[in-house]
């Protein structure tokens, strides 16, 4: 078995059906299987899977209670036989060469993570629970606004023949704009970019199964919505794998009401990630989620951090940087952070010693981006100007 397509599903029967239809239409000479982890669905997903006429080996794992998407994905991975894992969510529509292109990308690349295009969106169904922005966009598309819950907005023919792509559009958010600007600067090979795991979105990505097994699968401690893919991507990156974006590997997300229960989900997961990667070798995690610097400067800081890590005498600088990024996290996530005991103060470190050490590091290693960032954080958070 060459590849296993991993799909977690939760109450997405109609979108999953469409997704499986597009996988039925794959033009791929290699054998592949599809494994669906039904994560406690209550909408008839299981009966749909039992009756679906698949053109590939279809395996489904029923999980009686939803224990989070990481747990669901792991149950699917544990049942996988493929050399390559292709992550593809239940609400994704695959263009007809998606599986073949993912497989081909790994032919001569043993330690590669392939990130397909993930920012295309489409309306395949109307939902009463759509958020305001979705209803406003739909009103611009349709003269007669859809009114029936789960009313189909695509025909089965459009799904099967691939013409659904003509109705797709780019997701327009600050998050996507930021990632596109990184691609503009560093290219789709992400050469010289030190946080490539930011492109590891598990609705359209692939990696060899043994690499995922080697690092321990998805972290099942991440139960709330999101970030389990980033966590796996971080560990794959730290294990030495390279990342590449492939715009030609196309998958389109079927829009639906958000699975994110509240902004508290995001806050909880960011705090979890910062606690998990609470060391100077994982400063990129803190910079990505909390850093107040633009993408280009952040990348320059990461280059400087790599230089500093080679010298034990500069670890004091890196530890202070880590502590200050924790303070930024607290400020970003906790509205009452000022009323609580401060994590660090100007007395927590010998700042004059820090200044001398930083001057030495700049002269010896040329770590100007890191130095400017540390000076700025000290001034902003500790109210001390060391320049």
From TrEMBL:
<dbReference type="InterPro" id="IPR001173">
    <property type="entry name" value="Glyco_trans_2-like"/>
</dbReference>
<feature type="domain" description="Glycosyltransferase 2-like">
    <location>
        <begin position="4"/>
        <end position="138"/>
    </location>
</feature>
<dbReference type="Pfam" id="PF00535">
    <property type="entry name" value="Glycos_transf_2"/>
</dbReference>
<dbReference type="InterPro" id="IPR050834">
    <property type="entry name" value="Glycosyltransf_2"/>
</dbReference>
<protein>
    <submittedName>
        <fullName>Glycosyltransferase (Complex carbohydrate synthase)</fullName>
    </submittedName>
</protein>
<dbReference type="InterPro" id="IPR029044">
    <property type="entry name" value="Nucleotide-diphossugar_trans"/>
</dbReference>
């Amino acid at each position: 078995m060459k590849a296993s397509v991993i799909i977690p599903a939760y109450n997405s029967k109609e979108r999953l059906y469409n997704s499986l239809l597009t996988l039925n239409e794959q033009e791929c000479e290699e054998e592949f299987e599809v494994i669906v982890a039904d994560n406690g669905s209550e909408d008839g997903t299981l009966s749909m899977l039992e009756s679906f006429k698949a053109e590939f080996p279809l395996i489904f794992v029923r999980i009686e209670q939803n224990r989070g998407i990481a747990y669901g994905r792991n149950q699917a991975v544990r049942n996988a036989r493929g050399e390559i894992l292709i992550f593809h969510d239940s609400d994704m529509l695959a263009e007809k060469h998606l599986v073949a292109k993912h497989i081909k990308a790994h032919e001569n690349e043993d330690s590669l993570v392939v990130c397909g295009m993930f920012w295309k969106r489409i309306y395949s169904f109307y939902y009463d629970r759509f958020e305001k922005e979705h209803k406003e966009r739909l009103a611009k598309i349709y003269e007669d606004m859809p009114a029936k819950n789960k009313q189909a907005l695509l025909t089965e023919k459009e799904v099967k023949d691939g013409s659904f792509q003509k109705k797709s559009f780019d997701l327009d958010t600050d998050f996507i704009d930021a990632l596109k600007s990184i691609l503009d600067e560093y290219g789709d090979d992400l050469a010289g970019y030190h946080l490539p795991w930011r492109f590891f979105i598990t609705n359209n990505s692939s990696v060899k199964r043994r690499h995922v097994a080697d690092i321990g699968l998805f972290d099942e401690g991440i139960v709330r919505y999101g970030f389990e893919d980033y966590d796996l991507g971080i560990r794959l990156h730290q294990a030495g794998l390279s990342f590449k974006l492939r715009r030609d590997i196309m998958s389109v997300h079927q829009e639906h009401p958000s699975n994110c229960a509240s902004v508290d989900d995001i806050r909880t997961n960011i705090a979890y990630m910062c606690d998990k990667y609470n060391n100077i070798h994982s400063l990129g995690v803190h910079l990505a989620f909390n850093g107040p610097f633009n993408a280009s400067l952040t990348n320059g800081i990461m280059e400087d951090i790599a230089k500093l890590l080679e010298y034990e005498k500069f670890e004091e600088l890196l530890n202070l940087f880590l502590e200050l990024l924790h303070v930024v996290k607290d400020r970003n996530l906790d509205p009452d952070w000022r009323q609580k005991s401060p994590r660090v103060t100007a007395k927590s470190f010998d700042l004059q010693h820090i200044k001398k050490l930083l001057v030495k590091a700049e002269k010896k290693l040329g770590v100007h981006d890191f130095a400017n960032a540390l000076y700025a954080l000290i001034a902003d958070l500790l109210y001390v100007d060391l320049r």
